[in-house]
# Entry
Amino acid sequence: MKALVCSSLTDDFAGIRLEDVDLPRPGYGEVRIRVRATSLNYPDMLLCQGKYQLKLEPPFTPGMDIAGEIDAIGDGVEGFVVGEAVAGGMRFGGLAEYAVVSTEGLQKKPSHLSFAEAAAYQVAYLTAYVALVRRGNLQEGETLLVHGASGGVGMAAVDVGKLLGATVIATGGSDAKLERVFTYGADHVINTEGGFRDQVRALTDGRGADVIYDPVGGDIFDESTRCINFDGRLLIIGFASDRIASVPTNIPLIKGFSVMGVRAGEYGRQFPQKGAENLQTIWDWVREGQTRPHVHGELPLSKSVDGFRMLQRREVIGKLVICPDR
# Structure
């Protein structure tokens, strides 16, 4: 079978190639999936650059979000059958024609979602759910400030924030992208090129945002500490700006806000029962039509590196999906 293999860690993805590899066999509690779609996530890109918190020794195959049809079933598997359409998440291995997945993170694909939409769902929406519900305790009527709102995890946060009854302010560096986020459901949009704290404070009658969702870091994080409400929650999702910010402890002390880290997958590993509840909730939402991921477009597996470069250049709105060449 064909798989995308990272044989060396480089900033320019020069160590990534499409290669012929052995067909994997499912072990106990696992199924093999004929992959129809795999969405690209920012951590996939960082993993191949050696910059992600999970460190893998090459060679490995990236890919966290997949959808397809069950091709083979390992021992101990119940509730799934060969030929069934499924979707779910994994830590790596999804950018291939076939992938082996534990059934713990697997869901039956909702019939109204395409394979591309199903593959674009779990990682982004699980991140948004754990951030806004489990960590941020976002309440109906509060104001949510979403940075990097046109990215995959950003658009998911806008979607979940509106579902939870918040007023959503979305930020980004492109008016065209922000227009798409506004039509997606954000109540207000702000281009961060000229700063954003004064506009956030104006939109909240001087109080500031109650919850801030930050996958960007750097200067965005710094300015966020200047427009957060008392008892606010500043959620660290990632560092797309490539600068890890720091905050003098007197600022959260005086302003009375909390700074919280969010790792959705690790949250589920630390709290398995809550992790299962998280997955059940987000998939119930999409089955009921309350949420729906935004797919930017699709590329063939052979063009995966082009997809990484699109992510790196911030060209993607929502999620970019890779489909095996068939």
